[in-house]
Amino acid sequence: MPDTIPADSVGIVTPNIAVFETPLALSSKQTLEQYELIYETYGKLNAKATNAILICHALSGDHHAAGYHSMDDKKPGWWDSAIGPGKPIDTSKFFVVCLNNLGGCCGSTGPTSLNPKTNKEWGADFPIVTVTDWVESQARLADYLHINTWAAVIGGSLGGMQVLEWSIRFPDRIKNAVIIASAPKLSTQNIAFNEVARQSISRDPDFHDGHYTANNTIPVNGLGLARMLGHITYLSDDSMGKKFGRKMRHDDYQYNYGIDFEVESYLRYQGEAFTKRFDANTYRLMTKALDYFDPASATNGDLSKALSSAQCDFLLVSFTTDWRFSPARSEEIVDALVRAGKHVSYAKIDSNKGHDAFLFPIPRYMSALNGFLNRAHNILIQESN
Amino acid sequence: MRSDLDIINDWIQEDSKVLDLGCGNGELLQHLMGKKNVKGYGIEINADEINNCIEKGIPVIDQNIDDGLQNFGDQSFDLVVMTHALQQFRRPDLLLDEMLRIGKECIITFPNFGHWRNRLHLGIKGRMPVSEFLPYNWYDTPNIHFCTFVDFTRLCDEKGIHIKRWAAVDGHLRDHWWIRALPNVMSETAIFHVSR
């Protein structure tokens, strides 16, 4: 809980809900007749609505990117280190929008919402949505907010995939793209990790084919296990080693299957804490969205060709010890952009924090983001004069 | 404005696609993007220089040139430029081949180790030259492959590389007739424009 709100915080924020009555045709050929998107905004939209930035969240993120909901909050939003007055995503210059994606479990329409046709919770019947569907729904949110063109769209990991999709799908509605610790499509290994996560959920006896709520239960073991696995892949060997090493709970081995090592206790805690805030069906859906993303599939695997329509300036960022979305994967995007003759810069940031690094305010990373967005803002000002 | 940039500027066609290896703070690319409307990309490994380029809006790619340039396609650039860096790489000869694979033409500048002051330093003092322009000791220098003006022309001969034109300038990158007359002795920086 903050005693006082820090000067570089966006302060106390309140989420808004946008209701959409126009049906949304999904990649799966199913249609969402109506849906709601929960979102937060920070900063002020200028008169011409040219200073808006969209933040796209990753697998387990939500619309609460910065600030506090109340003085009782233990922690600020998930990317508070980068968003605020004077921070790299400077809310004294930009109007920042962050939403919870469709299929989420934090207030936007998803598996935990009521299916209007049955008046029961959707559960596993909620249609699988893709990155393309998200970007389409985000464009509708932009219309709703009277934002024609984003000054920038920014995201890490799965969020970066949404940014890439924005640049291809709505080239005239995005001026700058910041793609952090992401990939143009998942590797086989990544899909494999996702499948283990999904299986650990669906094999939990409490899963009930995704209709656990109707059965008054939650697959906490499966979801916790999925999170434990995911969590390991977001860290680096080095950062786990530095944090826990072989530190033990007791003075000696216990010679049983309880907790010997601190890292075991940490993972169990992480797994359990996650089940209290996240929905198992949403987790499965988000991992599917990751697996399905492959914009180059429309151009016979030629990413450069897929990006030929893009008009924005790109900033790509990767982190040296990230093995879930390694620098090589970001470099695939960079190379495709260079081949397509697009305006792109790329920074590979030294960090021992693995994939999670994208959420930390690493000075070189923050300075790159700051420099890129400052220039975007200067151009905005020049254009408005 | 550095005047070797002016020399290079005169040699570059309008609207070219240019790759600058070791682009530093992007000064050359910024100059060429402004004056010659080139589409430029820089390669750099220094974090501060990279951020400097990003701030200025000069496309820059964080990449270690010693690890290879395989990610760039054959003849995918009109011009590949490398200023004051060739001598810092593990295999300048192979790098030159790579530059001419990626670019239709190359412009390379490097410090001429055959300059009379270096000869004097080594010949009289018997010690490795340290100067205002080459301020490093032999053990901490990034310049691991010095060569002379003539050495470079020999390498081009051996490789069948065509020297389209050259310039030779002093430490302040100014051009003088006496440098042009005796480039291997008088020039502190050599500038070559080459192609296959």
Structure, described:
The complex is a heterodimer of chains A (385) and B (196). Chain A has 385 residues and is of the alpha/beta class. In chain A, 34% of the residues lie in helices and 15% in strands. Chain A has helices spanning 131-144, 158-169, 188-202, 220-234, 237-244, 262-277, 280-292, 303-306, 327-339, 363-384; strands spanning 16-20, 24-25, 31-32, 35-42, 52-56, 83-84, 89-90, 95-99, 114-115, 120-121, 152-156, 176-180, 313-319, 344-349. In chain A, strand 9 and strand 10 form a beta hairpin. In chain A, helix 1 crosses helix 2. The model of chain A has no long low-confidence stretch (mean pLDDT 97). The two termini of chain B are 30 Å apart. Chain B is α/β, with parallel strands linked by helices. In chain B, helix 3 (47-56) links the parallel strand 2 and strand 3 (60-62). The mean pLDDT of chain B is 92. The interface between A and B is medium-sized, with 22 and 22 residues. Chain A: InterPro entries: AB_hydrolase_1 (IPR000073), AB_hydrolase_fold (IPR029058), HAT_MetX-like (IPR008220).
